[in-house]
């Protein structure tokens, strides 16, 4: 889990959108959370990454480990959806919430997490 909690392993953070019907023949994009692109981590698969962040979220929710101030894989007091996928030479972890407020907070936390790498 250590590389996943280091902003140094993150290549980029982007918004995650879902397309939803907004009319009889129209669709609109809605913010769902964050797409966190990670550098390759030796020995990891998308399945093991998903399992690692899900277990981390559960441990934080149970009070077994503290969440970092900007931990991008948890949202205090709420459960988030986590899914990792292979992205050619890297991985992407999608963190998404149930509503716009959760999605916005998820994206903000992920961006602040990456910003920590530049802070001494």
Work out the helix count: 2
Instruction: Note the run of SSEs as H and E.
Output: EEHEEH
Strand order of the largest sheet: 1-2-4-3
Regions with pLDDT < 50 over 5+ consecutive residues? none
- What's the number of extended β-strand segments? 4
How far the N terminus sits from the C terminus, by CA atoms, comes to 22 Å
Rounded Rg: 15 Å
Number of domains: 1
- Given helix and strand content, the structural type is alpha+beta
Strand content: 25-35%
Supply the key terms.
alpha+beta, globular, 120 residues, 4-stranded antiparallel sheet
SSE blueprint and pairings:
Layout: E1 10-21, E2 27-38, H1 46-61, E3 81-87, E4 90-96, H2 100-115
Antiparallel strand pairs: 1-2, 2-4, 3-4
Describe this structure in words.
It contains 2 helices and 4 strands. By secondary structure, it is α+β, with helices and mostly antiparallel strands. It has one domain. A 4-stranded antiparallel beta sheet has the order 1-2-4-3. β1 (10-21) and β2 form a beta hairpin. The chain is globular and about 45 Å long. The protein starts with 9 loop residues before the first strand and ends in a 5-residue tail after the last helix. The mean pLDDT is 88.
